[in-house]
Design a protein that fits this description.
Structural class: alpha+beta
Largest sheet: 9 strands, mixed
Shape: elongated
Low-confidence stretches: 1-5, 18-26
Strand order of the largest sheet: 3-2-1-4-5-9-8-7-6
Number of helices: 15
Number of strands: 9
Radius of gyration: 22 Å
Order of helices and strands: HHHHHHHEEEHEHEHEEEEHHHHH
Amino acid sequence: MVGPAEVLSCHRARRADLATAEPETLVHLAEVLEALPDPRRRQGHRYRLAALLALRTAAVLGDTATLVSIARFTAGAPPELKVRLGLETSVPRACAPGRLLARIDADALDRAVGDWLAGQLEPAGGLRALALDGKSLRGSRTHDHTTVHLLAAVLHGEKTVIAQQQVDSKSNKTTAFQPRLSPLELTRTVVTFDALLTQTGHARFLVQEKGAHYIAVVKGNNPTLQATLKKLPWRDVPLLDKNRNAGHGRDEIRWLKAATVSGLAFPHAVQAPQIVRRRRDVRTGKVTLERVYAVTSLRAEQATPAQLAAAVRGHWQIEALHHIRDTTLHEDACRVRTGDAPRALATFRNLAIALAHLVGWTNHAQAVDHYRSHPDHALDLITPTS
């Protein structure tokens, strides 16, 4: 658990790092927001774009989710915050947040935020893992049953979305797979994805065009491949990794085996992991057993059993990120539907989660409580003071 003293220490350490960084490499988030295309008319600008978007970010850090509450947060911000943002004489009207977010270039916003977040993370040695999955914004559903669907790339272990794209429907995330990953540097990266995205074209694209690796889950939408994997002599394959985890009302044990394969009808597949999950409901005592199969382009010497197990397990961290957005930041309860506002607010939620993680928060509900009562600390993450 991260307490206030640790958080203040993280803030001071981060500001100290910023103060000693080389000027040409130092880019504050506020500068990135300022460089975005401004959708407003040139006449009558009363507030800088970066100031307005910084307020949105600070508000979402404190779980100010709706446009009305964002306007209320802005109006009630402490005087010193308004001075830092150049809003000491007046604040935007309540309708301003909605108009700005509805008209903002959401593609440019996602690119800018994703690139900046990726640059904040120290490159780790060895392989990094990137999970790709989609999410529907249920609250954006309109009278004609149109819902905003987003496909995001999330770094394992970092709670950080480095790329996001809107797709026409939930099933269309398969066609957005390559366009979403094309701009990213994927050398020494293993991309994990679920069964819906397990397609031969995606595997070829990752290995042959991006120089990356993949771990792809295989289920009933690939029946022939799934049947082949089930028939492998698993009893003769040694156990490579065992992991136990308790939480959220259940006790779970996971076993991993990996068989070396050749001649599979899937490009560049050289290993086939089998994951067995045994879950016990702590309250009812009910036990469920699940077997999941996957294919990967990683050879045994390229990833240790523990690394392979961590990559398979780490893919589901994207679900944990979605859980935070829905339960802590109340994304599904948000009824914003106009223009690009639903997607933009999702981007700011992703940004808020990543910023809190960068300074050491492990419980986002506690982070929300802290930034709600310390908006100056939230603003420090966006436009640090010297």
